[in-house]
Amino acid sequence: MQSMNDHNSNTLELSEEALAGIISETLDLAKKHGATQAEAGLTVAEGMSVSARMREVETVEYQKDNGLGISVYFGRRKGSASTASLDQNSIRKTVEAACNIARYTSEDPCTGLADAELMATRFADLDLYHEWDLSTDQAIQLALECEASALDFDSAISNSEGASIDIGKSHSAYGNSHGFNRVERKSRHSISCSVVASNERGMQRDYWYDVNRSPAKLLPVAEIGRKAAQRTVQRLGAVKLKTGQSPVLFAPELARGFVSHLISAIGGNAQYRKASFLLDALDSKILPGFVQLQEFPFEPGALGSANYDGEGVATNDRPLVENGVLQSYLLDSYSARKLGRVSTGHASGVHNLKVSDTGKTFEQCLQAMDKGLLLTELMGQGVNTVTGDYSRGAAGFWVENGEIQYPVEEITIAGNLKDLYLNIVEIGNDMDRRGTIHCGSILIESMIIAGQG
Fold first, then answer.
1. Is the dihedral of CA 333, 385, 434, 371 positive or negative?
2. Which of 5, 244, 278, 301 is the 20 to 30 A CA-CA neighbour of 328?
3. CATH of the domain at 221
4. Does one domain contain both 259 and 178?
5. Is 0.85 topped by the overall pTM?
6. What mean pLDDT do residues 52-72 have?
């Protein structure tokens, strides 16, 4: 088998200077076609994915992707087009297509580039690029080892959905007619494993994974396999709960998603469309007084780190919630103009949003709950970010006297997000950092649990 070094060179084929040159050329073409403003984004990415299932290689895939997107503005009329080919003829046709679209679109007073004075001028080294120099054979061995550690963990592990190794790296360039033109290198590598356990008490599946910019910081593959198997075996013998109300503790990997609904609700698009359960909530209390939400875009090596957003706007350390009170919406330039405000640098989402904790470990959060439901899996899409109504299929463990008693499944948890956020009583220090929202376990005082009876 070929190694990755044989298959693709270890540096992406186009230099950073060449990528910046393509952006400049694209913007110049737009200007020649009469555009008053233009912006262009270009990504060149490559990677390898290897998966193993039931102790055999299942797939080996190499990916190589290019993409150039351009938006042009003729006054307040906008047109956008994209291409996967980076030759001059394709770029010329893409620019022409964007310009033709702009000539036919309606004027929108809020459209246009982000304001020039908001462009980033500080470019810290954020440590976002680390090669994972694995041959195909080495990647296969890691995937097999990961799955083997899960399959060998317990005799109840009866089947596997596989283990995978994913290696990815990219160069991304963005420029606009304000003179902004930057190139960033990023890497993202992950390991995952999912297995099935079965015995006389039924059948269950679960998984575990890790993701990082640096392969050196990933958990060992054997540890990921064992964790996936342990989580799966613990779920055997799950029962249904009786319908009622009780405290609910979201495990960290679910707490992150729970917080993401709040992030959607304070986004500029939701606010100007009046489609948010936190409409006009600025300067009002949306979380308990002990909760702080703050962004740290310059954290070295983190998945959400960035010097600028998708429009070139500078990112900043920013408090979103202080002492439970909402300090800022999340705005790109368009939603900012719609709301009569200024972009907050969120054209590409949040940047390492940290949720403060109350100082308790996961075990202490269980003790604080005393009796209630520990959530480890959520299913379904029952989240209405307009009304805040929240209803999800769930599985996890029943807890009494602060200790896990038995697994539960086929239940539904429900409530209204506006109330649920205010009813947070503890946030654990067991922070999950595998995303752009960093959060520990979240204990809600009370939720409706629909089960049987």
1. positive
2. 301
3. 3.30.2290.10
4. no
5. yes
6. 97
